[in-house]
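Dear support,

I submitted the protein below through the web form. The confirmation email said the job was done, but the results page showed an empty box. After a refresh the structure appeared. I'm attaching both so you can tell me whether what I see now is the final result or a partial one.
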Amino acid sequence: MEPSFAVEGGAPAAPRYGPADLERWVPEPDKRPGRTAFQRDRARVLHSAALRRLAGKTQLVAPGSASPAWDATPRTRLTHSLECAQVGRELGAALGCDPDLVETACLAHDLGHPPFGHNGEAVLDEIAAPAGGFEGNAQSLRLLTRLEPKRFSAQLDGQGYVGLNATRAALDAATKYPWRRGGHPEDPASPKFGVYEDDLPVFGWLRKGAPEGRTCFEAQVMDWSDDVAYSVHDLEDGIRAGHLDPRILRSGPERGDVFEVAAERYAPGAGEGEPAAALDRLLEQDWWPHSYDGTAHAQARLKDATSQLIGRFCLAAEAATRAAHGSGPLTRYAAELIVPQSARLECAVLKAVADRYVMQRPDLERLRREQRVVLRELAEALLARAPEGLDPQYADLYAEAALAADPDTARLRVVVDQISTLTDAAARALHRALAMRGQHG
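What the results page shows now:
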C-alpha cells in the first residue's frame, strides 16, 4: 500500500506508512495508546542489551585506550551508532521520512558487530564457514528478529523467540544488504550480505513486496548517514589521538599514500586526479583544521570542522535528492537517495586518511594479530567444551541444536552467536578463564 500524507497548518505532516509497513512478525497490542509503531521500535532498540554492549566494542581506536600525548576519548561502536542516529534522523526528516523509523535503523545498524571490530568480523567469518559464514549486518538482523530477548510467542514452533519483534518497515530500513551470501546484485563475489540461510523465513516476510536486491529509501538514508558519521569522526579521532598531523595532507608523498588507499578501498572507480581534487576542496575551506595541538582552541576548531563536514555531506545529498524527486515526503520505495559524486569522493578521501594513518599503524597490526588469536582460541575452547562457557541463553540454544537437521552446524552457529555478543573486554576475559580451566583440567 502506498503511504499517504496529511497536511497540518499548511506544512506536510509526518508520513503515514501503510498497514503492511507497520506489521510485526508476531502481532501484539500496544501498551500505551498514542505512541506510533516506529516510536515503539526506536524504544526497543534504545533499551536493548545489544545496543549497550556496543559501548565495549571497537570503532576505530580500542575502548579504554589513550594517547601518550593527550586523552584520546575514542568513539566506540555505541557512540558511533548514537551519532549516526542523530545524523540520520535529521536527514531523514528533511526528506520526509518518519524520523523515528530512520533513527531506529541507524541505532540498529551495528548491533551485530562482534568484538574487535572488522578484525573480529573476518575471524568469525572463517570460524563460521561450515555454517555459512559470518557478517555483521546479517548478525544484526539475527539479533533483531531472534536473539535479543524481548518478545516471545508460543504460537511459533520451538521456543518462539522473535527478538525485538520490530515492524516490517523498521527491519527493512535496518537492512543494508538485502540478499543472502553470494546474492549481491552486481558483485556475486562480494563478502557483504544481510541474512543467513536459517533466517530466510523472517527475511522473506520483511521483504514482502520489495524489489529484489534494492534497499528502501530509509535504509539508503541510514547507509549514507553511517558513511558520513564514521568518515568524519574517524578523522576527528585520529587527529585527537595524535595519530594524524593535518599538516602532512599538503605533502606530496603523504598525499600519494592517501590516494593509493582511496583508489584501492574506498573509491576504486574514481578517475585520475579526482581524489586529489576532492581533498583539495576540503583543504581550501576556511574551517578546515590545518594543525592541532590539543588546546581548547584547537579542539573547538576541530569540532567545528566535524560539524561543517557533516552538514556539507548531508546538504549535498538532500539537495540532489530533492532536485531529482521534488519537494514531497520520500519514503520506502518511492525514491532513491541521490548523493553527488563529489560528496562521495570527499567522504572516501576522509576514510582513506583515517585508514592510512590510524588503521595501518604497526602497533595496531600487532594488536589485530593478537585479537585474532584470542577469538580463534576462544572458539576452539567453546566448541570443545560447550555448553560450558556459554551464557544460559546460548546454553539452551546449544541444547536445542541437537534437534536440528544438521546438529554440528547448528551448534557452531550458536557458539558464533555467543562470541559475537561479547565486548572486547569480555572476549578477553572469557578467553583467559577457559584457558585457565584448560590448564587445571
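Response: this is the final, complete result; the empty box was a page-load delay. The longest strand covers residues 7-8.
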